[in-house]
Amino acid sequence: MTKTKIGLGLASLGRPEYINIRPDQNIDKSAEAFQRKTMEVLDEAYEQGIRYFDTAPSYGRGEEFLLDWYQSRKNEGLVLGTKWGYTYKANWELGYNGPHEVKEHSLSKLREQWGYSKQLLPALEIYQIHSATFESGVLANKDVHNELMAIKKDYGLKIGLTSSGKAQSEILEAAMGIEVDGEELFDSFQVTFNLFEQSALPVIKKAKNKGKLLIIKEGMANGRVFPNKDYQHYQEHYHLLSVLSEEYKVGVDALALRFCMDLVEPQYVLSGAGNVGQLKENLKANEFELSRNDLEKLKSMAIDVSAYWNERSKLEWN
């Protein structure tokens, strides 16, 4: 078995709407109900052995929920990660007519969001730029780099970034070359990787060889790995996943996570479970290992990187 551990991301737990393919669950979408549910999922995750929890200010009230849980439970052995650079704008308004989150990678935004996020100390170990891009200017902003290095030195944190989009590989390559006073700034990378989006694998391997901590996100391709009649071009893939699901006696979600664990062997792969039932199904990925032959079959599902991200850009908040 690989040493990869499953972590829990709070993207779908901290806000009532999220970019994903999922049926209307007909659930209570009040903030109070979501907080109760989040506490249940966090408690179950800890009970099941999960120790890494990943959030962000743009996950609605996800950072607030995690902070409340952390301070009230006082569990030991936690590794918390959060991010900066996006602001949540939907304000819990269902069907919000506008961007739910807005990116800003400025020094002032870093200082503002760090002011709240540092309450997660001392369990906070990983502090990340949320979805770094060339366009946002953050990879060239030396003032931000200096501030992050100061946070790293003052609090003993790992400084990281998360990546999305078809330029992921170039972003990671550029980030690995950023130094402050002769010291590499970035210690960790959180990368979008799954059955359909495998383009960053070469640079992921390079980062591993440099000793970087690796976290895999969106391992289920925002729900696209599950059988769906709207995605006819994936029907052969869905058939294979169904066959393997029967063979390994686990759900497609566990297969998708196990694929990332066996092929990439990161430190963490994130479950994005929205309830206790989904979490338990995801954790079945810990109970088996893919054969080399099946791993190669699943590896062949990769699609063109531009096609993947064009498809993702059409997903709606629901």
Strand order of the largest sheet: 1-2-3-6-7-10-11-12
Proportion in helices: 25-40%
Low-confidence stretches: none
Number of strands: 12
Shape, principal axes of CA atoms? globular
Q: What would the average pLDDT be, to the nearest integer?
A: 94
Query: What is the ordering of alpha helices and beta strands?
Result: EHEHEEEHEHEHEEEHEHHEHHH
Oligomer: single chain
Tell me the distance between the termini: 36 Å
- Rg, nearest Å: 19 Å
Note the main sheet: 8 strands, parallel, barrel
Strand residues, percent: 15-25%
Secondary-structure-derived class? alpha/beta
- Count of helices? 11
Question: What does this protein structure show overall?
Answer:
It contains 11 helices and 12 strands. It has an 8-stranded parallel beta barrel with strand order 1-2-3-6-7-10-11-12, surrounded by 5 helices. It has helices at 31-47, 62-73, 107-117, 142-155, 168-176, 201-209, 235-248, 252-264, 276-282, 292-299, 305-313, and strands spanning 5-9, 52-54, 79-84, 86-88, 101-103, 124-129, 158-163, 179-180, 183-184, 188-192, 213-217, 268-271. With 318 residues, it is of the alpha/beta class.
